[in-house]
Amino acid sequence: MSGTAPRAQLVRDATFVHLDLDGGITGSRGTSPDGLFVRDGRHLSHWRLTVDGGAPTALSPLAPTTDGAGECVLTPRGTRDAPPAYTVFRRQAVAAGEFTDVLDLVSNSPDPVVAEVVVAVDADFADTFELRADDRHYPKPDAVRRARRTAEGVEFDYRRADWHARTTVTAEPAPDAVHAEEDGPHRLVWRVALAPHGRAELRLRVVAHPHGGPQRAAAGADEPVRAPALGDDDLGRACARGLADLDLLTIPATGVDGETVAVPAAGVPWFLTLFGRDSLLTSYFMLPYRPALAAGTLSALAAVQGREYDAVRGEQPGRIVHETRRGELAHFGQIPYGRYYGTIDATPLFLVLLHAHYETTEDPALAARLEQHARSAVDWMRGDGGLTEHGYLVYSPDPGGLINQNWKDSDGAVCDKAGTQARGPIAVSEAQGYAYDALRRTARLADEVWQDPAYAQELDRLADALRARFARDFWLPEDDFPALALDGHGNRADALASDAGHLLWSGILDDDRARRVGRRLLEADFFSGWAIRTLAADQRPYHPLSYHRGSAWPHDNAVIALGLARYGLVDELRRVATGLLDAAAHHGHRLPEVLGGYARAASSTPVPYPHSCSPQAWAAATPWALRTALESVGG
Q1: What is the secondary structure of 112-127 as a DSSP string?
Q2: Which domain of life is it from (predicted)?
């Protein structure tokens, strides 16, 4: 994550706060906005502490501890000959919809001291989409924001038509005074008497009241891990860090029968919500170790599976959602992402995970419960998804949403070697692999769980035909490698991309081609030494700091690693795993969402991608996928 100044981040229970290293909030925007965020809304946009009329000095900058908490040590300004009269030990934390800030003032003086403490506070209720650095503006007619003093602090209230959100700030003890500034923050003021070498505590509590009711904690997020004890090596430490991050990113969602389930949110700061492919792949990586996470994700996605046609949000019957949002702009239809279905791959991945859950747990109950949802997903793939009409899963660019609807969903990411974006309907390679795997796996469910052998045979025939077409249409003989995509005219988008590695995981390639592709991905133009790049480096569109045209994604490498293991490419698998774990070791054993694509020889540490989410769910789960892959080939 990047910003104009270093920041600390506390996250837990679908709530997060970005803070300056002295524990303050300034209301910034751009690549790393600060504030307290709940349900895509900023419920605290200003939080500044002053002591004795000035900003305190951070002796120890804010550092996260555990469970969404952090600490720092502050003092009033002082000199060598006149050291600070007291020290402020500051402890901050988030929980479901709440932020607490405890100021423990400790006197350093043998004489009585009176400390003047002021906390300036404000809430702008900005939607996260307003805060992005993309210069978009969203009109808000008739929106009204008010603030009022209360006995224990201040309350901020925001209304727009039927939308209503509040933020309350209370303090113990109550402030001695509250000063309102015109079009500015409220100032909570205390005069704190400290006895010689005495102490006093101020405890402030901020509660977000988002539209739709209080924020819930994620029930069932603490499912035990089904794995032996983690080792004290780089893999063990990365798995431990990833598991801790996943605990922080686990949020509540509503399941298919109205139950509350725990699901992995995609990441912070922009994606603390249920996502299709992100939540599905994260759950797949964790499936051998936390199967309840997969069950929750499948139930939550089934609950919002497409039921009708809505062109604005891309909804179609049977289609699995790309993302859900609960913020103000989604509520008023100013962005399409309240329930946005613009993804080509979430639907087959839903089917892949459903069968994998049955296969791993040997429990058919979930597959039986979601039978009709699975059949609807297959119907979508065959119909609106394009398999029958086009022979492949295809998408057309959505000018109001996403131009590309595969995992490389940035503009221009699906291109040829010259860098020209493919035109629709676009058939990306990895989605065909997912579709093939989904058909095969759903056939097994039909045969073993649903007791419908005729349907199983039909799906197997479709999978056979798809595999044969793919081998004919996607292979680039001159490169001995699959094309990234086919465009709407059947022309190959011939960029050499990491998507090819996903084909090993899905099994759509024959054994010989799969092994050749796997070895090719470890050549120097693809493999940076830290990870496999999204695009081979000797092509015109390659850029090491492009989101999808030269960067390296840990989750992308995790999928590839599982594919390398499938085909027994042990040396290649170990090189990928070693590179990723070395990169994680440079980040406190936490893998970021994205790495820069620079070669390892260029820098002794991996170059960060400037807008990377961290923590991020499928990056957090990547070490566990590596563990699965390595154990499958004997470590």
Answers
A1: -EEEEEEEEEE----B
A2: Bacteria
Query: DSSP per residue over 359-417, as a string?
Result: HHH---HHHHHTHHHHHHHHHHHHTTTSHHHHSS--B---TTS-S--SSS-STT-SB-T
Q: Is pTM, for the whole model, over 0.85? A: yes
Contact 617, 265 (CB under 8 A): yes
90 has a pLDDT exceeding 90? yes
Pick the closest to residue 177 from 191, 164, 165, 167 (CA basis): 191
Distance CA 498, CA 576 (A): 13
Q: Would you say 320 and 377 are in contact if contact means Cβ atoms under 8 Å apart?
A: yes
Show contacts of 369-373: CB within 8 Å, 24+ apart: 369/256, 370/256, 370/298, 370/299, 370/302, 371/445, 371/449, 371/450, 373/256, 373/302, 373/305
Alpha carbon distance 559, 626 (integer Å) = 9
Cα→Cα distances 437→507, 508, 586, Å = 7, 7, 35
Q: What DSSP designation does 172 have?
A: E
Cβ partners under 8 Å of residue 28, min gap 6: 3, 4, 34
Is the model's pLDDT at 291 over the cut of 60?
yes
pLDDT at 1: 36
Domains of the chain: 7-209 (2.70.98.40), 234-632 (1.50.10.10)
Model pLDDT, residue 220: 57
Nearest-10 crossing angle of helices 617-632, 234-249: 140
Of residues 188, 199, 174, 177, the one with CA closest to residue 50: 188
